[in-house]
Specification:
Layout (H helix, E strand, L loop, with lengths): L10 E3 L16 E3 L2 E4 L7 E6 L10 E11 L7 E7 L2 E9 L2 E5 L4 E4 L4 E5 L4 E7 L5 E10 L10 E5 L3 E4 L2 E10 L2 E2 L8 E8 L4 E5 L5 E8 L3 E2 L2 E2 L5 E4 L5 E5 L5 E8 L6 E4 L2 E3 L2 H16 L34
Antiparallel strand pairs: 1-25, 2-22, 3-4, 4-5, 5-12, 6-11, 7-10, 7-12, 8-9, 8-11, 10-13, 14-15, 15-16, 15-17, 17-24, 18-23, 19-22, 19-24, 20-21, 20-23, 25-26
């Protein structure tokens, strides 16, 4: 999914990016509230964004988390995101309900359905579109981005699809769609050590999971009010556990829990995020935008950095205007 904000905020983020003055240093879990972001376009879809924000910009290499739905929809085009660019990142699409058709300039055409992951590596540059299908009556899911490390961020773009098996551990049901957990490993490509899994618990259930102590971990709660390491995390919120623990304990409470467990080793690099680009400097972001506008929007070069999306019945999405200041850290 594109970041369709008409005036996207500029962020220069570093690892760790924590406001220590606001953090409760006695708590084993950092609690991040979502903010509602109305995305542009004719339908003005609203998402709940828990990364990035002032208190924290990254969990491992995870740099962007948007949750949306459940939203009743009618037919094809209920989600209609025109071709748009990405650089320096991987997009991770995960659905709870609905069906979305993905097309990209690497030549990929794929559907994503609940329990499946679409992972697109933008690398040096790619463009893609996302359109809900006629079969979709409800949209509900999460869109996440991973920042690529500097050594890998100029790789040629590519696309992968994976259907993780359902596994049981204690009271929990899990689907490991990225990285490894509990002896299950995803087949999709990662460039830093990472973890992504859907975690479900029945009401009153609990689970203790052995994890990599070198990872930061986050629990993106979709439904329920669980306790993570003994700390309550509200629905739609993100609970973050810093690196160190060798186990994570999640308790469901009075309602069933559905959440995503994400994690990874700290990225340890400064990155600049603006609109749909991840780079390393203001000037690099400016160059990405200029290439997109010239090569794709103005049509100067059909086979340039971002290529061409075949089969989408419409025009690509123009980039917003850059702010009148250099991209810099938020206060």
């Amino acid at each position: 999914m594109s970041n369709l904000e008409k005036d996207p905020s500029e962020l220069l983020v570093a690892e760790p990016a924590i406001d220590e003055s606001a953090a409760d240093l006695a708590s084993p879990v950092e609690l991040l509230e979502p903010r509602e972001v109305p995305l542009g376009g004719p339908r003005a879809m609203t998402v709940r964004r828990t990364l990035p924000q002032k208190k924290r910009s990254l969990v491992g290499a995870w740099c962007f988390v948007d949750s949306y739905g459940p939203t009743p929809v009618t037919g094809r085009g209920a989600m209609n995101v025109p071709p748009h660019p990405h650089t320096g990142l991987q997009t991770v699409s995960w659905l709870y309900a609905g069906e979305i058709e993905h097309r990209d300039s690497a030549g990929s055409l794929a559907l994503i359905e609940p329990g499946q992951v679409n992972l697109m590596t933008a690398g040096a540059g790619i463009q893609h579109s996302e359109v809900s299908t006629e079969a979709t009556s409800e949209l509900h899911g999460v869109q996440l981005w991973l920042a690529l490390p500097d050594r890998s961020r100029h790789v040629a773009p590519f696309f992968e699809h994976y259907v993780p098996p359902v596994i049981r551990h204690g009271d929990a049901t899990l689907r490991v769609f990225l990285g490894s957990l509990l002896g299950q490993s995803s087949t999709v490509t990662t460039f830093t050590r990472l973890l992504g899994a859907q975690l479900d618990l029945p009401a009153g259930g609990s689970v203790t999971i052995p994890v990599d102590p070198g990872f930061e971990h986050g629990l993106v709660v979709d439904a329920g009010t669980p306790r993570l390491q003994g700390v309550e995390v509200l629905a739609t919120h993100l609970g973050v556990v810093p690196a160190g623990p060798e186990t994570l304990t999640v308790e469901a409470g009075d309602a069933p829990l559905r959440a995503l467990l994400i994690g990874g080793e700290p990225l340890g690099e400064r990155i600049v995020m603006w609109w749909n680009f991840v780079g390393r400097s203001h000037d690099e972001i400016v160059a990405f935008r200029e290439k997109w506008q010239a090569e794709v929007i103005a049509g100067a070069e059909a086979n340039g950095r971002f290529g061409h999306v075949d089969g989408y019945p419409g025009q690509a999405l123009p980039a917003p205007e850059l702010p009148n200041v250099r991209l810099r850290p938020r206060d």
